[in-house]
Amino acid sequence: MYGLIGKFTSTDGDRDSLSAILLNGPRDMPGCLSCIVANDPGDPNALWIAEVSDSADSHKASLGLPSVQAAIKEGRPLIASMQQVAETAPLGGHGPTAT
Asked: Over the chain (99 residues), what is each successive 10-residue block's mean pLDDT?
């Protein structure tokens, strides 16, 4: 498995709009096992994204999907910065069910 943890900082006051794009955007990406979007309680413009895919290749391939490209195009004007915090090798676990 392949994991990626990243931090997106929205332009001032646009976190809710950016999170809506991330939460309601691409679904059913081949190889994507989970994608969690979370507000940073200490920064009103920051979001944390934790992804788990079956492989790094699946994650990379998902970036070329039309639905992902559309979400990137829609969200890009709302992003002040992006930071890849960590690549991980998930072992398993449990988590919330996406809604």
From this structure: 96 97 85 93 97 94 91 95 93 72
